[in-house]
């Protein structure tokens, strides 16, 4: 009985420390690398924004050469429609970027085929600012269309304070890049590279082996199949 109580107390203590780790203060504003291009088509930044209140086309594909801009209406954010829109931009303009920057599922499926066809280097930064130039265009566009669709990707002063400042998934540093500012390359527990982060976006994990369970999906004897808090369905175990 004492042993079982001791084990429960230990688990409870670990959970408390993990919660403290997830809710530790997170710095939002810090120096970042500049976006520098020396010629047309050196860097395209892309994004898809949703304009649900408006009829017919609910999405807009934004393509910015940083020096020039394209905005194409889409009926959905699907990979095939996004691919066709990008292909039409390349065909109509007669130009093709050396690099394309974006983080989104629609850019990691069918779009990859056309990027490989034109030998385009596709990368993501996984920062809250993402494609900074195109994000500024999105903000301008949305403000012009109406303030009701303004959204923040991270916690604002109006957002409830009981949501975590840090994600539950733990990553491993695989490389430190001596950029200005310094960035760190990561991989997840499956060995997959997930992009680069600034130092101020990092928080040391003191309990990397402790995970929070969101819900039990099914039981079989003394075994359970669960979904981890903060993980998608592909991580269920």
From TrEMBL:
Coiled-coil positions: none
InterPro entries in the record: RNaseH-like_sf (IPR012337), RNaseH_sf (IPR036397)
A GO MF term: nucleic acid binding
SUPFAM superfamilies: Ribonuclease H-like
Source superkingdom: Eukaryota
The protein's name: Integrase catalytic domain-containing protein
Organism: Atta cephalotes (Leafcutter ant)
Recorded name of the encoding gene: 105621964
